[in-house]
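Action item from last week, closing it out:
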Amino acid sequence: MTTHPKDIIVIGAGLVGAIQALLLARAGNKVIVVERRSLLSTASVQDHFSSRTVALSHRTWQLLCGGNLWPSIDHCAIDTIHVTEQGKFGSVTINARDVSVEALGFVLSNTDFECYLHRLLKAEPGVEILEASKVQSLHQSTDKVTLIVEQQGHEQEIIADLLIAADGTGSAIRSMLGLTVDERDYQQCAVLANVATTKPHQHKAYERFTSAGPLALLPLSTKQDNGHVFSMIFTAAAADKEWLHGMSDEEFLSLLQKKFGGKLGRFEKIGKRVVAPLMLTVSARQVESRCVLIGNAARTLHPVAGQGLNLAVRDVFELASCLDSNSDVGLALKEFGEKRRRDQVLVTRHTDLLARAFTQKSWPLRMPLSVASSSSFLLLDFLNPLKRKFAQVSMGHHVPLPR
């Protein structure tokens, strides 16, 4: 329990905002959550085969378990990651046993996880929830933040010591603060869907780099699937967005088979497809006086390495730790920025480079990733120290746990 309780507003009750609010409330702070939607208590998705998923790293699993926030829902452990490049010889295989962990990561239903967190929010005494609400205005003084929030046609004023914005890539709070964003349009789109194969996944994830962008398949646990379902991220050129969207399921499965090959047998079923543009978006600043941006409001990464949510969770836990140990909010935010900067820069650059290296042929983009050429793939697979370092970053173990 913190010796420095604070009044804190969290904007957004998605995964990142909900975790942040729960950590702060359990530390003894008074937390008000402002969410534009109505909170979920039970999953409304009947077709679990088509539900969205999230991939959590081993470090995220450690943090959530330590914070008593690991969800009691179905999840699938990733025991092995297999990385290849289309048309090239060689591969990299990383096993959990290579790095002495229970699993490299876990794949969960996004909706089920969010429902679990929302139930915890509703049961948490230190949390007040304003559902179906919208922030109308924001004002900062030296030591306070004042919001005008509209809910069902009624406006109310809220004053707090700190505002944490977890309201997504198009953050309204970021706009109200006048913060600009640096953007990189990858000229790519991603097709997101769940797919079933004739061969079981055996808890193995696949990352295949192609000339159009990466293709990721993550093992998934759904009801009555018998271990044959994957969560898929299929990257393609932005110009192909309408073409991909207009494909029949049979046509898309045929294209997927051609891109991936026959290692998993035949791709025989696909759930609802979502096609989305891919961009890197980074706020000019994460902290602005008494306001701090978290998650996609601060930075939205390419999904190639599955690092966006995991990076955000590390931010969330560090921010809670800094606020717990400092009576002064300003000092806490300064400490937070100093502690998190290296990890944020490293992961953002690493993800950006991976996203571009296999679709742009010009030097020097491919040079730093020469490890992904055919001969170096084989070299990496035999050099355990190098492979272990690669795995440490993927699992989030390159940074220490917060205090």
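Closing note: Residues 7-43+110-182+279-395 form a domain with the FAD/NAD(P)-binding domain fold (CATH 3.50.50.60).
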